[in-house]
């Protein structure tokens, strides 16, 4: 099991490099590669994602429909955030190249952090549909909870599934942004 993750990650990296060499990235290709790229990161870190088990994670308190809803919201949210990051990269690509890439990565991480900060309200609204007794309230903390952000950036054994997956998305911003810039050079 320990070798499957790195092998699949290398294969995915090869596919991405091959795509970039053939043609610059376009929207459909970009969106189609985000989810498999995140899955490869998960498989490549079996000690964090698989050994943990997540038996006590709140996802398992939901029925099948609720779990499917959470996965759908997460997937569409991830695609929306990475679409905004791609649009931002298109604008920043006009800057001189030595400065554009680091600035673009920092801006992409900032976009991701803002989305991560606002996402609890979206999930809480979904939970209100499932559990009508939940009160209407704002669950977003102000300002951004830096301790929680640190928990997603540095995955820990025994962490929650949502924190680990949010961390995968956070770290995926860097290669995604580099991929967009590499595609412009081809």
Give the topology.
Elements: H1 4-22, H2 27-44, H3 46-49, H4 64-92, H5 97-130, H6 146-153, H7 161-185
Helix pairs in contact: 1-2, 1-7, 2-4, 2-7, 4-5, 4-7, 5-7, 6-7
Structure description:
- This protein is an all-alpha fold.
- The protein has one domain.
- It contains seven helices and no strands.
- It has helices spanning 4-22, 27-44, 46-49, 64-92, 97-130, 146-153, 161-185.
- Helix 2 crosses helix 4 (64-92), helix 4 (64-92) runs parallel beside helix 7 (161-185) and helix 6 (146-153) packs across helix 7.
- The chain starts with a helix and ends with a helix.
- The model has no long low-confidence stretch (mean pLDDT 76).
Shape field: globular
Mean pLDDT rating: 76
Q: Write down how many β-strands occur, each being a DSSP E stretch of 2 or more residues.
A: 0
Please summarize the sheet with the most strands.
Answer: none
Low-confidence parts: none
Per DSSP, the total helix count is: 7
Q: From the alpha carbons, calculate the radius of gyration and give it in angstroms.
A: 18 Å
**What is the terminal separation in angstroms?**
36 Å
Helicity range: over 70%
> What structural class is derived from the secondary structure elements?
mainly alpha
What share of residues are in beta strands?
A: under 5%
Helix and strand sequence: HHHHHHH
- Summed up, the domain count is 1
